[in-house]
């Protein structure tokens, strides 16, 4: 409270000054506390944002890895399915006698190779018979009695000689090979195959200047005479 003295001056008590100072001090404390709280809130907010970003990055990397695993599984699944379909298709092409007692895929593959060789041999024999029937006496092939036949065919790699004869009789194939070598011809392969009751000899002569100018009719006649004499 204040009092009025005789000099008409207004005088404030000392207690009022103390109250005013305390009010100012409280205001300063409140202001400082508010600023500190704001700073703490901002710091916590930044930490939360940083934590969310890190978690999102982890989730993104995890999803990418999972997607790659799923893709690899799908590719492997598709590959296995395609292999199964191909093996089933191959198995359907093989005759029953080649599949008896064979259950595994490896057995089917092995029998497929055997079947291909069997078909190739049959084709060679049938080709020989077809050409003999088609061209007859005019063909470059000629019959040696009734049990032997010989045919010469030009091919990309040189000349192919096919000789067919009965198994019991046969002839000395080495004499034919010697005759070819003496003429300067290079024999690259000689394969003998059993077809029913016959032997099929397939001789391959390498292409060269000699084979380019060779007269197949003359060589055919020479080999025919030789087989006649050997028979």
UniProtKB/TrEMBL annotation:
<dbReference type="GO" id="GO:0006355">
    <property type="term" value="P:regulation of DNA-templated transcription"/>
</dbReference>
<keyword id="KW-0805">Transcription regulation</keyword>
<keyword id="KW-0804">Transcription</keyword>
<keyword id="KW-0539">Nucleus</keyword>
<protein>
    <submittedName>
        <fullName>Transcription factor bHLH</fullName>
    </submittedName>
</protein>
<dbReference type="GO" id="GO:0005634">
    <property type="term" value="C:nucleus"/>
</dbReference>
<feature type="domain" description="BHLH">
    <location>
        <begin position="67"/>
        <end position="119"/>
    </location>
</feature>
<dbReference type="Pfam" id="PF00010">
    <property type="entry name" value="HLH"/>
</dbReference>
<dbReference type="InterPro" id="IPR011598">
    <property type="entry name" value="bHLH_dom"/>
</dbReference>
<dbReference type="GO" id="GO:0003677">
    <property type="term" value="F:DNA binding"/>
</dbReference>
<feature type="region of interest" description="Disordered">
    <location>
        <begin position="31"/>
        <end position="65"/>
    </location>
</feature>
<feature type="compositionally biased region" description="Polar residues">
    <location>
        <begin position="31"/>
        <end position="40"/>
    </location>
</feature>
<dbReference type="InterPro" id="IPR015660">
    <property type="entry name" value="MASH1/Ascl1a-like"/>
</dbReference>
<dbReference type="InterPro" id="IPR036638">
    <property type="entry name" value="HLH_DNA-bd_sf"/>
</dbReference>
<keyword id="KW-0238">DNA-binding</keyword>
């Amino acid at each position: 409270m204040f009092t009025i003295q005789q000099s008409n001056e207004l005088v404030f008590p000392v207690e009022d000054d103390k109250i005013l100072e305390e009010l100012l001090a409280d205001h300063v404390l409140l202001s400082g506390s508010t600023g500190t709280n704001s700073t703490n809130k901002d710091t916590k907010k930044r930490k939360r944002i940083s934590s969310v970003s890190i978690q999102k990055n982890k989730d993104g990397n995890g999803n990418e890895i999972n997607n790659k695993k799923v893709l690899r599984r799908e590719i492997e699944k598709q590959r296995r399915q395609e292999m199964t379909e191909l093996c089933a298709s191959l198995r359907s092409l093989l005759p029953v006698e080649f599949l008896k007692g064979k259950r595994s895929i490896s057995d089917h593959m092995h029998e497929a190779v055997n079947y291909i060789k069997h078909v190739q041999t049959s084709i060679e024999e049938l080709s020989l018979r077809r050409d003999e029937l088609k061209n007859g006496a005019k063909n470059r092939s000629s019959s040696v009695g009734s049990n032997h036949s010989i045919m010469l065919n030009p091919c990309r790699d040189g000349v192919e000689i096919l000789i067919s004869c009965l198994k019991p009789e046969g002839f000395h194939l080495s004499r034919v090979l010697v005759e070819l070598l003496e003429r300067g011809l290079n024999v690259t392969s000689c394969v003998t195959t059993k077809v029913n009751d016959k032997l099929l000899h397939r001789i391959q002569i390498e292409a060269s200047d000699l084979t380019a100018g060779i007269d197949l009719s003359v060589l055919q006649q020479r080999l025919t005479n030789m087989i006649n004499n050997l028979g």
